Amino acid sequence: xxxxxxxxxxxxxxxxxxxxxxxxxxxxxxxxxxxxxxxxxxxxxxxxxxxxxxxxxxxxxxxxxxxxxxxxxxxxxxxxxxxxxxxxxxxxxxxxxxxxxxxxxxxxxxxxxxxxxxxxxxxxxxxxxxxxxxxxxxxxxxxxxxxxxxxxxxxxxxxxxxxxxxxxxxxxxxxxxxxxxxxxxxxxxxxxxxxxxxxxxxxxxxxxxxxxxxxxxxxxxxxxxxxxxxxxxxxxxxxxxxxxxxxxxxxxxxxxxxxxxxxxxxxxxxxxxxxxxxxxxxxxxxxxxxxxxxxxxxxxxxxxxxxxxxxxxxxxxxxxxxxxxxxxxxxxxxxxxxxxxxxxxxxxxxxxxxxxxxxxxxxxxxxxx
Length: 369
Ligand SMILES: [Zn+2]
Known about the structure:
By secondary structure, this protein is of the alpha/beta class. It is 34% helix and 17% strand. It binds zinc ion (ZN).
């Protein structure tokens, strides 16, 4: 086999791509690809994330469910600074990379079982899964927090998915979504190894768009960790395959309220607020189930973590819009973190830097003042 799905704790393997946790110990699963990355195997005429289909060996080409995701613009903003416009994916966020791979890998099996898929999300992943379910002709139930942004909820419902609001903490939403029900196949993007693995294409694209050179720094917002872990796996795959010579410094950017990884990484105690009240509505995981894995992987890759204040988020959101980049406030967190590191001298403008702009501003319910 050119890939293997294994438990991250006890190592028990599985061949069931519908599984999201280990059947022995309940811990998260991980996918390892045993096929080296090689530039010669890219489908150069496919301008989507599927140009890298050869490196997703668990998906059959005839089963691909696509809306044209990926191959998003990498825009040079100034000097050595680039923005990767993940906000231009079909449903308006980077999550489409995970959804297209996950739904492609499992839709036939879910249909064979006569089932439907269930997902829990603060909004973007729910909208994305709902869209790919619609494209595949699958039924979907999306569990969302009570405070979900209105435009994201509308999007989920217009795609034809059933949206269920769950009051209380973000973890309660996941519990509800995981409750067994006849025909339900839980595909929560936070835990599902195939969704996370799908994000890998982002690393390949950044390097290919920079002329097969890794940037020195990459800034990305981190909540539950799918983006961070997917990008880390992708760069590690490129390194292990000899496609790049050096790992970029990957910087995990968090908000003051939702910063469990930042605190874990810096060895500081973290006390989450009782209720998260933030304009960064996509960053709400105060207790992410993959925290330890994120910490280990980020440390092993020589990465870093930064935290920004609430008032910096809105300010940076407006600043980005003021230069033409209309992204959601959660995406502005990464650019705010980059500016903070520049100010305190931990980063320099001489380093080739990519800031990932994760989601579109068209989904924000904020009003200009
Ligand atoms: Zn296990």
